[in-house]
Structure formats: C-alpha cells, structure tokens
Amino acid sequence: MNRSEAKKIFEPRRSHFSKVSILLMAVGFCLCCMMVPAMPAQSANPSAADDLPALIRISTPLAFCGESVPLHMRDVRERQERELLISLGNRPQVILWIKRSGRYLPHIEKALKENGMPDDLKYVAIAESALRIHAGSVKGAKGIWQFMEPTGVRYHLKVNGNTDERLGFFAATGAALNYLKELYALFGSWTLAAAAYNMGESGLKAEMLVQKVDNYYQLYLPLETQQYLFRILSAKLILSNPERYGFHLTAEDLYGPELFDQIEVTCSQDTPIQLIAQAAKTYFKVIKDLNPEIRGYYLSEGTHRVLIPRGSTDGFQDRFATLSNQWLADKKNNSYVVKKGDNLSSLAEHFNVPLPALLIWNRISAKKQISPGDRLVIFPNSTP
User: Fold this and answer.
1) For residues 299 and 276, is the Cβ–Cβ distance under 8 A?
2) What HEC string does 211-241 produce?
3) Which of 2, 12, 26, 157 is most buried (most C-beta within 10 Å)?
4) What is the pLDDT of residues 301-343, one digit of tens each?
5) All residues at 6 or more sequence positions from 326 whose CB lies less than 8 Å from its CB, including other chains
6) Contact status, residue 273 vs residue 298, Cβ threshold 8 Å
7) What CA–CA distance (Å, rounded) separates 352 from 344?
8) CA distance 144 to 127
9) CATH number of the CATH domain containing 247
10) Are residues 239 and 346 in the same domain?
C-alpha cells in the first residue's frame, strides 16, 4: 500500500476521531468546572512581602545617625523609594546581607560603641560591599569597606606585593571608622561624612563651595553619591525589621563569627602558607580564609600576626619550627640547575609536575626567561 492510498483509508477515521475527542473533552471540562469551587484571584489578597507599594511606604520618621531624613521633600522620598525597591528586587542578595550580618556586624557594632560613634554607620559596610570580604570595584576599591589604595595607606593599611590589609576585616574596620570620624570632624554631619566617604572629601567640599549648599539632600552630586545614602538607609530599614519585608530568618540561619586564635609567626625568609596550615593542623584554604589580606602562597620574611583556628595554638610554634626546617632541607635537596635548552614548560613535563606548581614554588611568572645556571626548586609530584 502506498502513502496516498493509506492516507485515503485513515484520513476519514482520523477526522471522525478528532471530532469525538473534542466533544468528550468539552463535556469533561464542563463537569470539572461544576465540581471544583472557584479560587479567589491571587491579587485580591497579596502577601505583605508582595505588596511593594505598601512596603516602600514610610509612615514614621526616618533618620541616619540621628540626623532627620526630609521625606516631606518630593525628590527625597522618590530617591528613597527607588533604592528600597532596588534592594527588595534582589531578594537573594538581601538574604545574604542578613545571613552575613551575624558574622560581621557584631564586631562593627562593638567597635562603633567603643569609639562613641552612631550605630547606623554599620550599614555603610552593607552599602559598600554587601559584607563581602573579597569585594572589588572597577576603580580598584577592595574589601568590606571598599578602600582605594591611597586612602587605605593613608589610614595605615599595609598594601604591597605580599599583603593587602584592605581585605582584612579587622584592620579595615578600624581604618574605616577612623576615616569616618575624621570626615565627621571636617563636615560636622554624619550624612555629609557618608557622602564624602563615597566620593572623597575634596570632591564634596568643592561641590559645596561651588553650589553654596551644605545640605546633602539639596546638593547636586554624582549620581552614585546621590543614591548612596538612600542605599544605606534601605539596608537600615530592611535589617531593622526584616519580617516586615518578608524575610523570616532565625538566629540559626545566620552565619556565625569565625572562631580563631591569633599567633605571632616569625619567618626567616618567605615561607609557604601551607606550613602554617600544617602547623595549625588545618588546610591552606582555612588559613587563607581567616587571613584574606595575605597575598599569594607565601608569608613574607619578618614577624606577622596570623589567625588560626581556635584551639590549635598548643604546640604550634614547635610544629612550625620543625616543618620550616624540613622545608628548607627539601628545598636544598630538590634544587635543579637549569641547562642549555631548558624552558619552564619542558621542565614541568620532564619532572611530571604541573607548570603552575613550578611557577608557585619559584615565585615566578610563566613569561620569565630562564638561563643556564639558574636554580629552580622542583619538588617531586606527590599529589594526594
């Protein structure tokens, strides 16, 4: 039977079947409609967290560091509502704010209290970095408090090839509070101090001079700075009453503070962080996470204060001394003198080690040209 003949035989039946099927489906649908009670429209009773117009409505006075926010001004209210909507539009990010707050805000709150500074300043860290230790900006700012390098150095943060204390939570928090304190002394207002923290004190002073205005809410500033304080206030509104905005987290949901001990480590030369991890009976990653200010894989020559997991100080110095001596001996025993025709890739292949490991051991880049007579450290491949 060819295709055209089959079509003639089956087409009428298929057409009849289709009509019957449609009729049965229509009857079934009517029966279902009669049996199932009508559901109310979802929009008739939205949950509090979904009622955005109600959520951004601020009916009580709002202040930053005790300084009133003039919500009666139309553009001020609009700017505040805009930033609050933007924050609420990224609910996963807000959940992370709240969870991270358990790890970082207690220390910031304590430091603010000890310095006699307003508690609201803790929300600056959220606006700057969402409480991310490794946050970075396209302009080069780094850390929870987003210090640019010159400003960080001015406030005694060490920034060099081995260390970047802008990433160290405790050091950077102390520097940020000192900076904010000086900005307040300069401008006489925490609101203006926050604006200056964002755009720099020179830029803010220039705008105030040219515009002859000393009120943040009446100044025409770079758009980022015009939004900045309202971003801080949005964090304050949400974290002060997360349930109102639909965030129901318990104390167990929050990330707790890191538990650590601080030790003093003296290195006779640049020393692998892995030795510190072994001496602390932990892993390389743990030491890096506790000390994000340490760059790369080595602790530079000299004396350092290093955070290690709580409870691992007993016997640390003895273990570290033993491991350091063993490492120095291993370096000597695994020294290779470069020969004519050698290059980094061929040596890595010859010794069956990854090229990146060879570069880390010798603290060189892949672009380095090696010459006969150079010495390289090449440890045997002992990958777990």
Assistant:
1) yes
2) HCCCCHHHCCCCHHHHHHHHHHHHHHHHHHC
3) 157
4) 999 999 999 999 999 999 999 999 999 999 999 999 999 999 9
5) none
6) yes
7) 12
8) 10
9) 1.10.530.10
10) no
